[in-house]
């Protein structure tokens, strides 16, 4: 768990991925690795001898094979250009000699093989095929969050230097683990820390919120805690807007409504609606 992994493609979010990963690399004092994955694509069939009506058109097979080879070569070249442009951007941001990796295969599987050395994964909220519709998120984003048991920072298309962050706190054991991770990590130290508990707060829940606040204060955070009622997604979004929050922190697997997050509508809703980066912690 030593490296910040910046996952880039040809999407508009790749520049922000570079910027946020550079920011995280400096704060964590960790090296940075750029990763570009060439997804496997369907290849032309190599044997059509049994196909009805092929006749003597064997030359079509060779043309298809040549086309596949050309596509693969162009995809590799494009990926190398993306990596070089990203390295140049990182150099301007003061990141010296970042590594770059280009791999073939499924994105999730490829990142899984790198998990042991991953301290933080930075990935764009929208992928290369997401289009310009804000609500469209990358097809692999949720799968990556489910599969990797490492912190994942999902970023929008534009970089804004984080000055404050909000913890979606629900009083669960997982929420307390999120607090513990933040206490131990230098990533967000020095930023204003907000905690929001959505729902009718019982005395026990208030005590849990107070305990979490105290832990963070002892770790040096300036904290602001609040409880409110309403829809979880609406309240989180509203609070971020009203308090000019730059980053939202959530537990990847919780034990309350926020838990529905990787298995249902809550996660998809927050990924689609949030205009700030989302830091997912296990």
Element layout with pairings:
Blueprint: E1 3-7, H1 14-28, E2 32-38, H2 58-92, E3 99-104, H3 107-113, E4 118-124, H4 141-147, E5 152-155, E6 164-168, H5 173-184, E7 192-198, H6 203-218, E8 223-228, H7 232-242, E9 248-251, H8 265-273, E10 278-281
Parallel strand pairs: 1-2, 1-4, 2-3, 4-5, 6-7, 6-9, 7-8, 9-10
Antiparallel strand pairs: 5-10
Pfam families: Usp
Domain UspA: 2-156, 165-281
InterPro entries: Universal_stress_UspA, UspA
Task: Give a structural overview.
The chain is an alpha/beta fold and 282 residues long. It folds into 2 domains: 3-41 and 75-155, HUPs (Rossmann fold), CATH 3.40.50.620; 164-281, 3-Layer(aba) Sandwich (Rossmann fold), CATH 3.40.50.620. It contains 8 helices and 10 strands. The protein has helices spanning 14-28, 58-92, 107-113, 141-147, 173-184, 203-218, 232-242, 265-273; strands spanning 3-7, 32-38, 99-104, 118-124, 152-155, 164-168, 192-198, 223-228, 248-251, 278-281. The chain has a 10-stranded mixed beta sheet, sandwiched between helices. The relative contact order is 0.14. Residues 2-156, 165-281 form the UspA domain. Belongs to the universal stress protein A family. Pfam families: Usp (PF00582).
Name the shape in a single word.
elongated
CATH class of the largest domain: Alpha Beta
The profile of the biggest β sheet is: 10 strands, mixed
CATH homologous superfamily placement of the largest domain: HUPs
Order of helices and strands: EHEHEHEHEEHEHEHEHE
Q: Level of helix content? A: 25-40%
Q: Please give the number of β-strands.
A: 10
Give the neighbour order of strands across the main sheet: 3-2-1-4-5-10-9-6-7-8
Strand content: 15-25%
* Domain unit count: 2
Question: What value does the Rg take, in angstroms?
Answer: 22 Å
CATH architecture of the largest domain: 3-Layer(aba) Sandwich
Q: What is the helix tally? A: 8
What is the third-level CATH name, the topology of the largest domain?
Answer: Rossmann fold
Domain UspA: 2-156, 165-281
Organism: Ectopseudomonas toyotomiensis
Pfam families: Usp
Family: Belongs to the universal stress protein A family.
